[in-house]
Protein backbone atom coordinates (compact mmCIF):
# COMPACT_ATOMS: atom_id res chain seq x y z
CA UNK A 1 0.00 0.00 0.00
CA UNK A 2 2.74 2.42 1.02
CA UNK A 3 4.93 1.36 -1.86
CA UNK A 4 2.00 1.86 -4.25
CA UNK A 5 1.57 5.37 -2.83
CA UNK A 6 5.30 6.06 -3.20
CA UNK A 7 5.17 4.80 -6.74
CA UNK A 8 2.20 7.05 -7.33
CA UNK A 9 4.13 10.04 -6.00
CA UNK A 10 7.18 9.13 -8.03
CA UNK A 11 5.09 8.86 -11.13
CA UNK A 12 3.16 11.98 -10.23
CA UNK A 13 6.06 14.40 -9.84
CA UNK A 14 7.52 14.06 -13.33
CA UNK A 15 4.05 14.40 -14.86
CA UNK A 16 3.46 17.54 -12.82
CA UNK A 17 6.75 19.19 -13.82
CA UNK A 18 7.28 17.88 -17.32
CA UNK A 19 5.51 19.64 -20.10
CA UNK A 20 2.84 18.27 -22.34
CA UNK A 21 3.75 18.53 -25.97
CA UNK A 22 2.73 17.60 -29.47
CA UNK A 23 4.08 17.87 -32.98
CA UNK A 24 5.55 18.29 -35.48
CA UNK A 25 2.27 18.91 -37.24
CA UNK A 26 1.37 20.42 -40.60
CA UNK A 27 -0.75 23.56 -40.38
CA UNK A 28 -3.96 24.61 -42.11
CA UNK A 29 -4.77 28.29 -41.95
CA UNK A 30 -8.00 30.30 -42.07
CA UNK A 31 -8.56 34.06 -42.36
CA UNK A 32 -11.65 35.95 -41.14
CA UNK A 33 -12.87 39.51 -41.14
CA UNK A 34 -15.48 40.45 -38.57
CA UNK A 35 -17.51 43.63 -39.03
CA UNK A 36 -19.01 46.29 -36.76
CA UNK A 37 -21.04 44.92 -33.83
CA UNK A 38 -19.83 41.32 -34.07
CA UNK A 39 -18.45 39.82 -30.86
CA UNK A 40 -15.02 38.27 -31.37
CA UNK A 41 -15.14 35.31 -28.95
CA UNK A 42 -18.64 34.25 -30.03
CA UNK A 43 -17.64 34.50 -33.69
CA UNK A 44 -14.48 32.47 -33.12
CA UNK A 45 -16.34 29.75 -31.19
CA UNK A 46 -18.90 29.55 -33.98
CA UNK A 47 -16.17 29.37 -36.61
CA UNK A 48 -14.27 26.61 -34.78
CA UNK A 49 -17.48 24.60 -34.41
CA UNK A 50 -18.59 25.04 -38.03
CA UNK A 51 -15.18 24.06 -39.39
CA UNK A 52 -14.82 21.25 -36.80
CA UNK A 53 -11.36 22.47 -35.83
CA UNK A 54 -9.58 20.26 -33.30
CA UNK A 55 -6.37 22.15 -32.51
CA UNK A 56 -6.94 25.80 -33.41
CA UNK A 57 -5.10 28.88 -32.19
CA UNK A 58 -4.80 32.57 -33.05
CA UNK A 59 -1.86 33.48 -35.30
CA UNK A 60 -2.61 37.19 -35.58
CA UNK A 61 -5.47 39.61 -34.99
CA UNK A 62 -5.75 43.30 -35.81
CA UNK A 63 -8.79 45.50 -35.29
CA UNK A 64 -10.73 47.65 -32.89
CA UNK A 65 -13.47 47.14 -30.30
CA UNK A 66 -16.02 49.29 -28.49
CA UNK A 67 -16.13 47.07 -25.40
CA UNK A 68 -14.22 44.33 -23.60
CA UNK A 69 -14.63 42.25 -20.48
CA UNK A 70 -11.28 41.14 -19.06
CA UNK A 71 -10.26 39.10 -16.05
CA UNK A 72 -7.12 40.65 -14.68
CA UNK A 73 -3.97 39.00 -13.33
CA UNK A 74 -3.42 37.57 -9.85
CA UNK A 75 -6.29 35.18 -10.28
CA UNK A 76 -6.30 31.70 -8.82
CA UNK A 77 -9.09 29.19 -8.45
CA UNK A 78 -9.86 30.06 -4.81
CA UNK A 79 -9.55 33.81 -5.14
CA UNK A 80 -11.21 34.74 -8.39
CA UNK A 81 -9.84 38.04 -9.45
CA UNK A 82 -11.06 41.39 -10.59
CA UNK A 83 -13.11 41.53 -13.75
CA UNK A 84 -13.31 44.82 -15.62
CA UNK A 85 -15.83 45.98 -18.18
CA UNK A 86 -14.28 48.46 -20.60
CA UNK A 87 -16.64 50.70 -22.56
CA UNK A 88 -14.52 52.71 -24.96
CA UNK A 89 -12.97 52.45 -28.39
CA UNK A 90 -9.79 50.42 -28.19
CA UNK A 91 -7.28 49.12 -30.71
CA UNK A 92 -6.40 45.42 -30.51
CA UNK A 93 -2.60 45.25 -30.25
CA UNK A 94 -2.41 41.55 -29.37
CA UNK A 95 -4.71 38.54 -29.18
CA UNK A 96 -2.97 35.33 -28.18
CA UNK A 97 -3.96 31.80 -27.29
CA UNK A 98 -5.75 28.60 -28.15
CA UNK A 99 -9.27 28.10 -29.41
CA UNK A 100 -10.72 24.77 -28.51
CA UNK A 101 -14.11 24.42 -26.82
CA UNK A 102 -12.88 26.24 -23.74
CA UNK A 103 -10.72 28.83 -25.41
CA UNK A 104 -7.87 30.49 -23.56
CA UNK A 105 -7.26 33.94 -24.98
CA UNK A 106 -5.41 36.95 -23.63
CA UNK A 107 -5.68 40.34 -25.23
CA UNK A 108 -4.01 43.73 -25.02
CA UNK A 109 -5.92 46.83 -26.04
CA UNK A 110 -4.68 50.39 -26.59
CA UNK A 111 -6.83 53.40 -25.70
CA UNK A 112 -7.10 56.95 -27.02
CA UNK A 113 -3.81 58.02 -25.44
CA UNK A 114 -2.02 54.81 -26.50
CA UNK A 115 -2.08 53.27 -23.01
CA UNK A 116 -2.47 49.50 -23.18
CA UNK A 117 -4.52 47.33 -20.88
CA UNK A 118 -4.35 43.54 -20.91
CA UNK A 119 -5.77 40.38 -19.40
CA UNK A 120 -7.77 37.22 -19.96
CA UNK A 121 -10.50 37.79 -22.57
CA UNK A 122 -13.83 36.84 -20.99
CA UNK A 123 -16.06 38.17 -23.78
CA UNK A 124 -17.86 41.28 -24.86
CA UNK A 125 -15.18 42.05 -27.47
CA UNK A 126 -17.57 43.92 -29.74
CA UNK A 127 -15.97 45.01 -33.00
CA UNK A 128 -15.87 48.77 -33.68
CA UNK A 129 -14.73 48.92 -37.34
CA UNK A 130 -13.12 45.58 -38.12
CA UNK A 131 -11.28 42.56 -36.79
CA UNK A 132 -8.97 40.69 -39.13
CA UNK A 133 -8.04 37.33 -37.64
CA UNK A 134 -5.78 34.54 -38.87
CA UNK A 135 -6.40 31.12 -37.28
CA UNK A 136 -4.03 28.14 -37.41
CA UNK A 137 -5.21 24.53 -37.11
CA UNK A 138 -2.73 21.74 -36.31
CA UNK A 139 -3.71 18.96 -38.69
CA UNK A 140 -2.53 15.97 -36.68
CA UNK A 141 -3.10 17.15 -33.11
CA UNK A 142 -6.12 17.66 -30.88
CA UNK A 143 -6.60 20.13 -28.03
CA UNK A 144 -8.78 19.19 -25.09
CA UNK A 145 -8.93 20.45 -21.49
CA UNK A 146 -8.74 18.53 -18.23
CA UNK A 147 -9.14 19.88 -14.72
CA UNK A 148 -5.68 20.37 -13.21
CA UNK A 149 -5.88 20.16 -9.42
CA UNK A 150 -2.66 22.17 -9.13
CA UNK A 151 -4.20 25.19 -10.79
CA UNK A 152 -7.93 24.74 -10.24
CA UNK A 153 -8.53 25.33 -13.95
CA UNK A 154 -9.23 23.07 -16.92
CA UNK A 155 -5.81 23.08 -18.57
CA UNK A 156 -4.70 22.33 -22.10
CA UNK A 157 -4.01 18.71 -23.07
CA UNK A 158 -2.32 18.11 -26.44
CA UNK A 159 -2.93 14.71 -28.06
CA UNK A 160 -2.26 13.02 -31.39
CA UNK A 161 -5.45 13.21 -33.43
CA UNK A 162 -7.53 10.04 -33.57
CA UNK A 163 -7.34 8.79 -37.14
CA UNK A 164 -10.24 6.39 -37.08
CA UNK A 165 -13.15 8.42 -35.75
CA UNK A 166 -16.20 7.70 -37.89
CA UNK A 167 -17.76 10.60 -39.69
CA UNK A 168 -15.08 13.19 -38.95
CA UNK B 1 -40.59 49.55 -54.88
CA UNK B 2 -41.07 49.29 -51.13
CA UNK B 3 -40.77 45.53 -51.21
CA UNK B 4 -37.52 45.84 -53.19
CA UNK B 5 -36.23 48.22 -50.54
CA UNK B 6 -37.29 45.80 -47.79
CA UNK B 7 -35.61 42.96 -49.61
CA UNK B 8 -32.51 45.13 -49.91
CA UNK B 9 -32.56 45.76 -46.17
CA UNK B 10 -33.15 42.10 -45.42
CA UNK B 11 -30.28 41.11 -47.63
CA UNK B 12 -28.16 43.91 -46.30
CA UNK B 13 -28.32 43.02 -42.61
CA UNK B 14 -26.90 39.50 -42.87
CA UNK B 15 -24.06 40.72 -45.10
CA UNK B 16 -23.25 43.45 -42.62
CA UNK B 17 -23.20 41.10 -39.63
CA UNK B 18 -21.82 37.92 -41.17
CA UNK B 19 -18.09 37.59 -41.40
CA UNK B 20 -15.97 37.20 -44.47
CA UNK B 21 -13.78 34.14 -44.36
CA UNK B 22 -11.36 31.99 -46.31
CA UNK B 23 -9.49 28.74 -45.89
CA UNK B 24 -8.27 26.21 -45.12
CA UNK B 25 -5.11 27.21 -46.90
CA UNK B 26 -1.56 25.90 -46.85
CA UNK B 27 1.02 28.39 -45.61
CA UNK B 28 4.36 29.54 -47.01
CA UNK B 29 6.59 31.35 -44.57
CA UNK B 30 9.35 33.95 -44.96
CA UNK B 31 11.83 35.31 -42.39
CA UNK B 32 13.52 38.72 -42.54
CA UNK B 33 16.02 40.68 -40.50
CA UNK B 34 16.05 44.43 -40.87
CA UNK B 35 19.05 46.42 -39.68
CA UNK B 36 19.66 49.83 -38.10
CA UNK B 37 17.91 52.71 -39.87
CA UNK B 38 15.56 50.62 -42.01
CA UNK B 39 11.89 51.53 -41.80
CA UNK B 40 9.72 48.52 -41.05
CA UNK B 41 6.54 49.36 -43.03
CA UNK B 42 8.46 50.45 -46.14
CA UNK B 43 10.61 47.32 -45.98
CA UNK B 44 7.56 45.07 -45.58
CA UNK B 45 5.72 46.72 -48.49
CA UNK B 46 8.82 46.29 -50.66
CA UNK B 47 9.16 42.66 -49.62
CA UNK B 48 5.50 41.87 -50.32
CA UNK B 49 5.78 43.49 -53.75
CA UNK B 50 9.05 41.78 -54.69
CA UNK B 51 7.77 38.36 -53.67
CA UNK B 52 4.33 39.05 -55.20
CA UNK B 53 2.59 37.95 -52.01
CA UNK B 54 -1.20 37.89 -52.25
CA UNK B 55 -2.34 37.06 -48.71
CA UNK B 56 0.50 37.95 -46.35
CA UNK B 57 0.38 38.65 -42.61
CA UNK B 58 2.78 39.04 -39.70
CA UNK B 59 3.34 35.89 -37.62
CA UNK B 60 5.86 37.37 -35.22
CA UNK B 61 8.18 40.38 -34.92
CA UNK B 62 10.84 41.15 -32.34
CA UNK B 63 13.14 44.15 -32.35
CA UNK B 64 13.61 47.78 -31.41
CA UNK B 65 12.92 51.16 -32.98
CA UNK B 66 14.09 54.74 -32.51
CA UNK B 67 10.84 56.29 -33.77
CA UNK B 68 7.21 55.46 -34.47
CA UNK B 69 4.16 57.25 -35.81
CA UNK B 70 0.95 55.78 -34.41
CA UNK B 71 -2.73 56.60 -34.90
CA UNK B 72 -4.39 56.11 -31.56
CA UNK B 73 -7.77 54.54 -30.74
CA UNK B 74 -11.17 56.17 -30.93
CA UNK B 75 -10.74 56.89 -34.59
CA UNK B 76 -13.57 56.82 -37.06
CA UNK B 77 -13.78 58.04 -40.63
CA UNK B 78 -15.46 61.35 -39.74
CA UNK B 79 -13.40 62.14 -36.67
CA UNK B 80 -9.84 61.19 -37.51
CA UNK B 81 -8.03 60.67 -34.30
CA UNK B 82 -4.84 61.72 -32.61
CA UNK B 83 -1.58 60.80 -34.29
CA UNK B 84 1.55 60.68 -32.16
CA UNK B 85 5.17 60.82 -33.21
CA UNK B 86 7.37 58.96 -30.77
CA UNK B 87 11.09 59.78 -30.75
CA UNK B 88 12.72 57.39 -28.33
CA UNK B 89 14.19 53.91 -28.22
CA UNK B 90 11.39 51.38 -27.86
CA UNK B 91 11.18 47.60 -27.81
CA UNK B 92 8.63 46.01 -30.15
CA UNK B 93 6.49 43.72 -27.97
CA UNK B 94 3.83 43.01 -30.60
CA UNK B 95 3.24 43.64 -34.30
CA UNK B 96 -0.03 42.23 -35.60
CA UNK B 97 -2.01 42.34 -38.80
CA UNK B 98 -2.23 41.81 -42.51
CA UNK B 99 0.12 42.98 -45.23
CA UNK B 100 -1.53 43.46 -48.55
CA UNK B 101 -1.20 46.67 -50.54
CA UNK B 102 -2.96 48.67 -47.87
CA UNK B 103 -1.51 46.96 -44.83
CA UNK B 104 -3.33 47.01 -41.52
CA UNK B 105 -0.82 46.74 -38.70
CA UNK B 106 -1.07 47.48 -34.99
CA UNK B 107 1.96 47.62 -32.77
CA UNK B 108 2.79 47.81 -29.09
CA UNK B 109 6.09 49.30 -27.99
CA UNK B 110 7.74 49.28 -24.56
CA UNK B 111 9.80 52.23 -23.33
CA UNK B 112 12.73 52.61 -20.93
CA UNK B 113 10.57 52.01 -17.86
CA UNK B 114 8.70 49.09 -19.48
CA UNK B 115 5.53 51.10 -20.11
CA UNK B 116 3.83 50.01 -23.32
CA UNK B 117 2.12 52.24 -25.85
CA UNK B 118 0.05 50.88 -28.72
CA UNK B 119 -1.96 51.81 -31.77
CA UNK B 120 -2.26 51.67 -35.54
CA UNK B 121 1.19 51.73 -37.19
CA UNK B 122 1.24 54.63 -39.65
CA UNK B 123 4.96 54.52 -40.43
CA UNK B 124 8.26 55.86 -39.25
CA UNK B 125 9.12 52.59 -37.51
CA UNK B 126 12.86 53.10 -37.87
CA UNK B 127 14.89 50.15 -36.63
CA UNK B 128 17.30 50.81 -33.74
CA UNK B 129 19.33 47.57 -33.59
CA UNK B 130 17.29 44.91 -35.37
CA UNK B 131 13.86 43.70 -36.40
CA UNK B 132 13.32 39.98 -36.88
CA UNK B 133 10.05 39.38 -38.70
CA UNK B 134 8.30 36.18 -39.74
CA UNK B 135 5.70 36.59 -42.52
CA UNK B 136 3.04 34.04 -43.46
CA UNK B 137 1.50 33.84 -46.94
CA UNK B 138 -1.76 31.94 -47.50
CA UNK B 139 -1.11 29.98 -50.69
CA UNK B 140 -4.66 29.70 -51.97
CA UNK B 141 -6.20 32.96 -50.77
CA UNK B 142 -5.97 36.60 -51.79
CA UNK B 143 -6.37 39.71 -49.63
CA UNK B 144 -7.81 42.86 -51.15
CA UNK B 145 -9.53 45.91 -49.63
CA UNK B 146 -12.86 47.46 -50.45
CA UNK B 147 -14.35 50.63 -49.03
CA UNK B 148 -16.86 49.69 -46.32
CA UNK B 149 -19.47 52.43 -45.97
CA UNK B 150 -20.22 51.27 -42.42
CA UNK B 151 -16.70 52.03 -41.24
CA UNK B 152 -15.47 54.62 -43.73
CA UNK B 153 -12.31 52.56 -44.27
CA UNK B 154 -11.12 50.18 -46.99
CA UNK B 155 -11.69 46.85 -45.20
CA UNK B 156 -10.22 43.40 -45.75
CA UNK B 157 -11.83 41.11 -48.34
CA UNK B 158 -10.67 37.49 -48.40
CA UNK B 159 -11.07 35.63 -51.70
CA UNK B 160 -10.02 32.32 -53.20
CA UNK B 161 -6.94 32.94 -55.30
CA UNK B 162 -7.49 33.16 -59.05
CA UNK B 163 -5.80 30.15 -60.60
CA UNK B 164 -5.73 31.32 -64.20
CA UNK B 165 -4.14 34.75 -64.03
CA UNK B 166 -1.59 35.00 -66.83
CA UNK B 167 1.97 35.56 -65.84
CA UNK B 168 1.59 35.05 -62.07
CA UNK C 1 44.16 52.27 -51.62
CA UNK C 2 41.57 55.03 -51.73
CA UNK C 3 39.60 53.30 -54.44
CA UNK C 4 39.67 50.08 -52.41
CA UNK C 5 38.30 52.05 -49.43
CA UNK C 6 35.63 53.61 -51.64
CA UNK C 7 34.72 50.21 -52.99
CA UNK C 8 34.55 48.98 -49.41
CA UNK C 9 32.19 51.80 -48.50
CA UNK C 10 30.10 51.23 -51.58
CA UNK C 11 29.82 47.55 -50.78
CA UNK C 12 29.24 48.28 -47.14
CA UNK C 13 26.26 50.58 -47.49
CA UNK C 14 23.99 48.18 -49.36
CA UNK C 15 24.83 45.36 -46.95
CA UNK C 16 24.09 47.60 -44.00
CA UNK C 17 20.77 48.80 -45.38
CA UNK C 18 19.54 45.73 -47.21
CA UNK C 19 17.73 43.11 -45.21
CA UNK C 20 18.62 39.50 -44.73
CA UNK C 21 15.83 37.20 -45.79
CA UNK C 22 14.82 33.61 -46.36
CA UNK C 23 11.89 31.70 -47.71
CA UNK C 24 9.42 30.63 -48.85
CA UNK C 25 9.61 27.72 -46.46
CA UNK C 26 7.10 25.09 -45.39
CA UNK C 27 6.30 25.15 -41.68
CA UNK C 28 6.21 22.42 -39.02
CA UNK C 29 4.38 23.31 -35.86
CA UNK C 30 4.65 22.16 -32.24
CA UNK C 31 2.39 22.84 -29.25
CA UNK C 32 3.46 22.78 -25.58
CA UNK C 33 1.83 23.28 -22.24
CA UNK C 34 4.07 24.21 -19.33
CA UNK C 35 2.82 23.79 -15.76
CA UNK C 36 3.24 25.64 -12.46
CA UNK C 37 6.85 26.42 -11.53
CA UNK C 38 8.37 25.72 -14.95
CA UNK C 39 10.54 28.47 -16.41
CA UNK C 40 9.51 29.39 -19.93
CA UNK C 41 12.88 30.26 -21.51
CA UNK C 42 14.65 27.22 -20.06
CA UNK C 43 11.81 24.96 -21.19
CA UNK C 44 11.85 26.43 -24.70
CA UNK C 45 15.66 26.08 -25.02
CA UNK C 46 15.36 22.45 -23.87
CA UNK C 47 12.56 21.79 -26.34
CA UNK C 48 14.44 23.35 -29.27
CA UNK C 49 17.53 21.29 -28.42
CA UNK C 50 15.64 18.01 -27.97
CA UNK C 51 13.77 18.42 -31.24
CA UNK C 52 16.90 19.74 -33.02
CA UNK C 53 14.99 22.73 -34.36
CA UNK C 54 17.01 24.92 -36.70
CA UNK C 55 14.70 27.88 -37.44
CA UNK C 56 12.13 28.05 -34.63
CA UNK C 57 10.00 30.99 -33.51
CA UNK C 58 7.02 31.65 -31.26
CA UNK C 59 3.64 31.75 -33.03
CA UNK C 60 1.51 32.34 -29.94
CA UNK C 61 1.76 32.06 -26.15
CA UNK C 62 -0.93 32.46 -23.52
CA UNK C 63 -0.49 31.96 -19.78
CA UNK C 64 0.56 33.50 -16.51
CA UNK C 65 3.78 33.92 -14.55
CA UNK C 66 4.79 34.68 -10.96
CA UNK C 67 8.08 36.34 -11.92
CA UNK C 68 9.92 37.86 -14.84
CA UNK C 69 13.31 39.43 -15.49
CA UNK C 70 13.18 41.95 -18.32
CA UNK C 71 15.77 44.19 -19.95
CA UNK C 72 14.05 47.44 -20.77
CA UNK C 73 14.32 49.63 -23.86
CA UNK C 74 17.01 52.20 -24.65
CA UNK C 75 19.69 49.57 -24.47
CA UNK C 76 22.73 49.58 -26.68
CA UNK C 77 25.95 47.63 -26.48
CA UNK C 78 27.90 50.38 -24.72
CA UNK C 79 25.22 51.47 -22.32
CA UNK C 80 23.54 48.32 -21.07
CA UNK C 81 20.14 49.27 -19.86
CA UNK C 82 17.96 48.78 -16.83
CA UNK C 83 17.00 45.26 -15.88
CA UNK C 84 13.93 44.75 -13.73
CA UNK C 85 12.92 41.79 -11.64
CA UNK C 86 9.15 41.51 -11.36
CA UNK C 87 7.75 39.44 -8.51
CA UNK C 88 3.99 39.35 -8.98
CA UNK C 89 1.34 37.39 -10.82
CA UNK C 90 1.16 38.59 -14.40
CA UNK C 91 -0.80 37.53 -17.48
CA UNK C 92 1.23 36.95 -20.66
CA UNK C 93 -0.41 39.11 -23.34
CA UNK C 94 2.35 38.70 -25.92
CA UNK C 95 5.51 36.67 -26.44
CA UNK C 96 7.27 37.34 -29.72
CA UNK C 97 10.52 36.36 -31.38
CA UNK C 98 12.91 33.72 -32.56
CA UNK C 99 14.23 30.68 -30.73
CA UNK C 100 17.59 29.55 -31.90
CA UNK C 101 20.50 28.98 -29.52
CA UNK C 102 20.59 32.63 -28.57
CA UNK C 103 16.88 33.31 -28.52
CA UNK C 104 15.53 36.80 -28.98
CA UNK C 105 12.19 37.12 -27.20
CA UNK C 106 10.17 40.13 -26.13
CA UNK C 107 7.21 39.83 -23.83
CA UNK C 108 4.38 41.97 -22.54
CA UNK C 109 2.76 41.16 -19.21
CA UNK C 110 -0.42 42.54 -17.64
CA UNK C 111 -0.71 43.07 -13.90
CA UNK C 112 -3.62 43.03 -11.43
CA UNK C 113 -4.97 46.38 -12.66
CA UNK C 114 -4.47 45.47 -16.33
CA UNK C 115 -1.40 47.66 -16.76
CA UNK C 116 1.07 46.11 -19.19
CA UNK C 117 4.83 46.12 -18.92
CA UNK C 118 7.11 44.96 -21.71
CA UNK C 119 10.70 44.36 -22.70
CA UNK C 120 13.35 41.85 -23.66
CA UNK C 121 12.80 38.54 -21.83
CA UNK C 122 16.02 37.70 -19.96
CA UNK C 123 14.63 34.75 -17.96
CA UNK C 124 12.90 33.94 -14.73
CA UNK C 125 9.53 33.59 -16.48
CA UNK C 126 8.19 31.14 -13.91
CA UNK C 127 4.76 29.78 -14.79
CA UNK C 128 1.94 30.51 -12.33
CA UNK C 129 -0.89 28.31 -13.65
CA UNK C 130 -0.07 27.46 -17.25
CA UNK C 131 1.71 28.52 -20.41
CA UNK C 132 0.34 27.30 -23.73
CA UNK C 133 2.89 27.88 -26.48
CA UNK C 134 2.79 27.22 -30.21
CA UNK C 135 6.20 27.03 -31.92
CA UNK C 136 6.81 27.22 -35.67
CA UNK C 137 9.85 25.67 -37.36
CA UNK C 138 10.86 26.70 -40.88
CA UNK C 139 11.68 23.41 -42.60
CA UNK C 140 14.18 24.64 -45.16
CA UNK C 141 15.86 27.52 -43.30
CA UNK C 142 18.36 27.84 -40.49
CA UNK C 143 18.74 30.62 -37.93
CA UNK C 144 22.19 31.47 -36.58
CA UNK C 145 23.61 34.61 -34.97
CA UNK C 146 26.65 36.64 -35.90
CA UNK C 147 28.10 39.64 -34.07
CA UNK C 148 26.97 42.80 -35.83
CA UNK C 149 29.47 45.60 -35.23
CA UNK C 150 26.78 48.19 -35.96
CA UNK C 151 24.64 47.06 -33.04
CA UNK C 152 27.13 45.35 -30.72
CA UNK C 153 24.84 42.34 -30.51
CA UNK C 154 24.84 38.90 -32.14
CA UNK C 155 22.13 39.42 -34.76
CA UNK C 156 19.94 36.98 -36.67
CA UNK C 157 21.30 35.43 -39.86
CA UNK C 158 18.84 33.48 -42.02
CA UNK C 159 20.32 30.80 -44.28
CA UNK C 160 19.08 28.01 -46.51
CA UNK C 161 19.32 24.78 -44.55
CA UNK C 162 22.27 22.54 -45.36
CA UNK C 163 20.83 19.41 -46.96
CA UNK C 164 23.86 17.16 -46.66
CA UNK C 165 24.85 17.42 -43.01
CA UNK C 166 25.65 13.95 -41.71
CA UNK C 167 23.57 12.67 -38.86
CA UNK C 168 20.94 15.44 -38.84
Automatic annotation (TrEMBL), chains A, B, C:
<dbReference type="Pfam" id="PF03479">
    <property type="entry name" value="PCC"/>
</dbReference>
<feature type="domain" description="PPC">
    <location>
        <begin position="24"/>
        <end position="159"/>
    </location>
</feature>
<keyword id="KW-0732">Signal</keyword>
<feature type="signal peptide">
    <location>
        <begin position="1"/>
        <end position="18"/>
    </location>
</feature>
<dbReference type="InterPro" id="IPR005175">
    <property type="entry name" value="PPC_dom"/>
</dbReference>
<protein>
    <recommendedName>
        <fullName>PPC domain-containing protein</fullName>
    </recommendedName>
</protein>
